[in-house]
Design brief:
Blueprint: H1 4-27, H2 33-47, E1 53-58, E2 64-71, E3 80-82, H3 87-93, E4 98-99, H4 108-113, H5 115-120, E5 123-131, E6 134-142, H6 152-208, H7 217-232, H8 236-248, H9 258-261, H10 269-275, H11 278-286, H12 296-301, H13 323-337, H14 349-358, H15 366-380, H16 399-411
Antiparallel strand pairs: 1-2, 1-6, 2-3, 4-5, 5-6
Helix pairs in contact: 1-2, 1-6, 2-6, 7-8, 7-13, 7-15, 8-13, 14-16, 15-16
Length: about 425
């Protein structure tokens, strides 16, 4: 016959294993970490019939332990356990569970300078929480409800349960560390992005500054190109490439003599040849840079190409011409027509729309032109969330007349690619 003490021992073992399983489920749950830790502490204290306890974690500075969860102790939230020289190592080397009144000699220093806190916690036991030879925290356990001593079985159960708790605490600290690093990297990336954007804008401003008539031209081309790209539903990285491509499309003009850029009469053949070199010069400059958003140098090289093949420098036609280049070509021409230039005054918005319409299929891509008209129509009717074109125009115009022209575009059955 099995003795009553043996039956009690088996029940205690079964209860301990059940508690270990419950603790594992608590630690791996998706709840808030502090609540999870508190639930784990309550389960551990209930398993060994203790009324008070607390869990401390390393604060990251290796100089103190701060309260993460507590039970049965008033004011424990503000408690701290300081770590002096050698304390962390002594706790790592300590037994699984330390009875404070019988603590090893190498823990005397830690217990001495934290005596007031341990007394306030009514701690009878200390359980160092460690993973891989590193101290990640510490658990204190008060006296048993019964007032008797903890048995060897109790201490063994505490040691086993504290191992699961240590792993959970370590994983949380690792996650916090990785999260902090990720946030630092994100902040660094954003800083670098701001510096990068400022540098690109500085280049664009330097280009435009060569001629007072074109100040702000690159920025407007970038905004127009982005508006067209977003209306087309292009991926965000392509939209960003077009924004930067718009800002840098004229970078090759840095090498063009200012007198040619500012000339207010017809250019000579030599001057025209010099001006026509700026796309290839821009290509040579940008092709040496590895941009993360695609080949901006190609956008720069081909922003004066025409879909009928009569553009320059390479005479590319139709679909062989990058969509991004077709977008910037139209944005560039639109801004050129709607602003003053040394050789002519700006033309009105309605004249610009008619000119674009006339040149669809020869100079401009039909789908891109249609999209520009859609953007303008949405901005005029208040259906655009972030207007980019209408607010940039330097003229007053009759909105109703512009809408009529846009309607004519829609109704023109012979207009390639139009609905």
């Amino acid at each position: 016959m099995i003795s009553p003490s043996s039956v009690a021992g088996v029940k205690k073992i079964m209860y301990a294993f059940s508690s270990l399983n419950d603790l594992g489920q608590i630690i791996t749950s998706n709840g808030g970490f502090e609540e999870v830790t508190k639930s784990g502490l309550y389960l551990i204290l209930g398993t060994v019939s203790a009324a008070q306890g607390a869990i401390f974690r390393d604060d990251g500075a290796r100089s103190r332990l701060v309260v993460l969860a507590h039970k049965g102790v008033d004011g424990a939230t503000s408690f701290r356990l300081s770590l002096h020289d050698g304390d962390a190592e002594a706790l790592v080397d300590a037994p699984g569970v330390v009875e404070i009144r019988r603590a090893p000699q190498n823990l005397n220093s830690f217990i001495s300078h934290n005596g007031a806190t341990l007394t306030a916690l009514r701690a009878a036991l200390m359980v160092p929480l460690r993973v891989g030879g590193n101290l990640v925290g510490l658990m204190t356990v008060g006296a048993r409800f019964s007032g008797g001593d903890y048995t060897d079985d109790d201490l063994q159960i505490l040691a086993m349960m504290s191992q699961q708790l240590s792993v959970g605490l370590s994983n949380h600290q690792l996650f916090q560390s990785l999260q902090k690093k990720a946030e630092e990297n994100r902040a660094l990336y954003e800083d670098l992005q701001d510096i990068y954007n400022d540098t690109v804008r500085a280049f664009a401003a330097a280009i435009d500054a060569k001629d007072r008539y074109t100040q702000g031209h690159s920025d407007r081309v970038a905004r127009y190109a982005v508006a067209i790209a977003e209306e087309l539903g292009l991926p965000q990285d392509e939209v960003e490439a077009l924004r930067l491509g718009g800002l840098l499309h004229d970078i090759g003009k840095i090498t063009v003599d200012t007198s040619i850029i500012r000339k207010n009469s017809v250019l000579t053949d030599r001057e025209l040849l010099e001006m026509h070199r700026h796309p290839t010069v821009g290509f040579d400059i940008l092709s040496k840079i590895n941009f993360p958003w695609g080949d901006l140098s190609a956008l720069t090289r081909h922003h004066h190409e025409k879909v009928d093949g009569n553009g320059y420098p390479d005479g590319i036609r139709g679909e062989d011409l990058l969509l991004g280049a077709r977008i910037i070509a139209l944005a560039d021409a639109f801004d050129a027509m709607t602003t003053d230039r040394p050789y002519r005054k700006q033309i009105s918005l309605q004249e610009t729309l008619r000119e674009i319409r006339r040149c669809v299929g020869t100079q401009f891509d039909p789908r891109v032109a249609k999209t520009l008209f859609q953007v303008i129509e949405k901005e005029l009717t208040g259906r655009s969330r972030k207007p980019a074109i209408i607010p940039s125009l330097r003229e007053k115009f009759d909105s109703q007349r512009i809408r009529e022209i846009l309607q004519e575009v829609h109704d023109d059955c012979g207009y390639p690619g139009m609905a």
